[in-house]
Amino acid sequence: MASNILLVEDDASIGEMVESYLTMEGFQVVLAKDGEEALQRFAERDYDLVLLDMMLPKISGMDFLKKLRESSHVPVLIVSAKDGEVDKALGLGFGADDYITKPFSMIELTARVKAAIRRVTAYAQAAPVQQNRIIRVHELEMDLDHLTVTKNGEEIKLTAKELQILKLFMTNPKKVFTKQHIFTSVWNDDYFGDENVINVHMSRLREKIEDQPSDPQYIKTLWGIGYRLGEF
User: Fold this and answer.
1) Which label site among 16, 53, 89, 192 has the fewest CB atoms less than 10 Å from its CB?
2) 196 φ, ψ (degrees, to nearest 5)
3) Phi-psi category of 190—alpha, beta or left, where left has phi over 0 and alpha has psi -120 to 50?
């Protein structure tokens, strides 16, 4: 079955080019030209991936992404003309899975689209079916069947990647993970030394689960080595 992609792009020439190429590659593509239309199109059907331009009329790409993450963990690939690390970090921090900067080659874009969909599909297929699987670490509790996290009984809203990173640590309490290990395990892709992706996700995760993010206790940093789950 062909994967469904929501393409959000206000530049008509780029939108038509990407839509045509991905359609030839076997994807079903729905094109939205602004953030408002994107929200409408997303509500109409299920998608396997969202290709999101940041500079959009009516509703910005960032506002669209924040709204999307209130109800969905669908993979989001940011497409942006801005190449600054701040813009990348901001987008990834709000729940994007990857980014590509303009101008880009259609071959690279297609490869990233396929990789993002493949990672989600592989993760879903690999999830074992068991009952009542609860992991507790001090005040944190993760329900592996329902993929929810609570702290002192209050649910913590995590993005898909934040949830997978935390699960990696909570299911391997004695193991030390380098950034490369985290990336290959969670993103299921080759690591090319782009530490920004790991740094942003780790920072956002700590803001949500730690009492004092500047002095983390649940995920400890081993300087020059990596990270491990804290001991209580």
Assistant:
1) 192
2) -60, -40
3) beta
